[in-house]
Design brief:
The chain is an all-alpha fold and 394 residues long. It has 18 helices and no strands. It has helices at residues 2-32, 35-45, 55-70, 79-94, 100-126, 130-143, 148-160, 164-177, 181-194, 198-211, 217-228, 232-243, 250-269, 275-295, 300-322, 326-357, 362-374, 378-393. The protein is rod-shaped. It starts with a helix and ends with a helix.
Length: 394
């Protein structure tokens, strides 16, 4: 029986000795300066059951990685070595060693690395080496993952270095900590203006609206994207929704009217023109411009465009008259002429307001001359002709 116990004891002793060899070997290689091989050995050691919760082993892991990082040429950042060094020191703190000196050294090393990263990051940022600055700041974040100032530094360095995905990642970290409208705006600007990723920007806008439901700024961002992507139908719907609360916004109302004008042009450009759709778009455009003028009666663009909308409708009747057969002309020309004149009568006061707002525009004056001529307003026509002659003389 005693022989059996001795045999078991020898097996256990041998097993412990074999497991400890990894740490001893790593430290020996470290002392000899063979850092790559030392790193390979210690990496395997900290995966074992014996050392995965051993602060001393993790400290060796950290020191070897730190030495490898320090051996890199000046001005470069090897984040793998540095990140692993930080991890090693943090694991040392998590599983304190029996050696108090090691525990204190781990604390001091983390603080020293943190300060060096901030200083180096700031220096590289000043030198416009934004990639290195970003790596330094992101490594500092590993140490202080809740430090909003460092995360902001990293985001700004990424933007300056045109590393936009990295910038967005850091901005999202800030939002997870505490959402801010300004951070959402920065993210949307990157996606909309720099990446031209409109779908992603719309997702970010929806996230922002959930966090800040009472902020109107994000609807404006969404409208910008609809306009940039030529999604006029969604743009019109959004403007309609905004105007329910922002009822006196003449510029937004004008934008809606102009979008209807674009819809009219698209319908007319289609060889298979949909007459019903055209009339609907014309009616929508007219109502939109009248809405603008109810807010701002002297709005130059709204008065001019509405006048031209009526002018185009008048011209459609004149064109129809020109295309009539003799029989059609005898039967319908007078009625068509009167309908055309009705539209010119509606167009005239709008163009007169436009001419008062801009007294130098020859196109406005010539259009008024045509209106006065069609409506047999001789005195007004001659007065306008005199103004046109004066403008030509200048």
């Amino acid at each position: 029986m005693p022989k059996i116990w001795v045999f078991i004891f020898l097996i256990i002793s041998f097993s412990v000795s074999a497991q400890s060899t990894g740490l001893i070997e790593a430290r020996t290689l470290q002392a000899e300066g063979n850092l790559p091989e030392a790193l390979r050995v210690i990496k395997e050691a900290v995966k074992t059951d014996e050392f995965k919760e051993d602060g001393g082993a993790w400290y060796t892991y950290a020191e070897i990685n730190k030495a490898l990082f320090k051996s890199e040429p000046a001005g470069t950042v090897k984040s793998t070595y540095l990140s692993d060094a930080i991890l090693g020191y943090q694991m040392t703190q998590k599983y304190p060693s029996n050696n108090v000196r090691i525990n204190l050294s781990a604390d001091q090393s983390i603080e020293q690395i943190f300060q060096e990263l901030i200083q180096n990051g700031a220096q590289w940022y000043q030198q416009q080496d934004y990639k290195s600055a970003l790596e330094a700041f992101e490594n500092a974040i590993i140490i202080a993952p809740k430090d909003s100032t460092i995360i902001t530094y990293a985001a700004n360095a990424a933007v300056q270095g045109k590393l936009y995905d990295k910038a967005l990642t850091n901005f999202r970290m800030l939002q997870d900590m505490r959402p801010k409208e300004s951070i959402y705006q920065s993210m949307i600007s990157i996606q909309r203006d720099l990446q031209k990723d409109f779908p992603a920007a719309l997702i970010t806008i929806d996230e922002a609206k959930k966090d800040f439901p009472n902020s109107a700024v994000f609807d404006r961002y969404k409208l910008d994207i609809y306009l940039l992507s030529k999604d006029n139908e969604k743009a019109i719907d959004l403007i309609t929704e905004i105007l329910k609360t922002d009822t006196e916004n003449d510029q937004l109302a004008l934008r809606k009217a102009v979008l209807y004008d674009e819809e009219i042009k698209e319908i007319k450009a289609n060889p298979e023109m949909d007459s019903a759709a055209l009339q609907s778009a014309i009616g929508n455009s007219e109502q939109a411009y009248l809405k603008v003028l109810s807010i701002a009666p002297d709005n130059l663009v709204a008065n001019f465009n509405l006048s031209m909308l009526y002018n185009d409708q008048a011209n459609s009747y004149y064109l129809a008259i020109n295309n009539m057969t003799n029989d059609e002309y005898k039967a319908n020309s007078e009625a068509y002429e009167e309908k055309a004149l009705d539209f010119i009568r509606k167009a005239l006061p709008r163009m007169e307001v436009a001419s008062k707002k801009d007294t130098t525009d020859l196109n406005i004056l010539r259009t008024l001359e045509t209106y006065y001529d069609r409506l047999s307003m001789g005195d007004q026509k001659r007065a306008i002709q005199k103004k046109i002659d004066q403008k030509k003389g200048n």
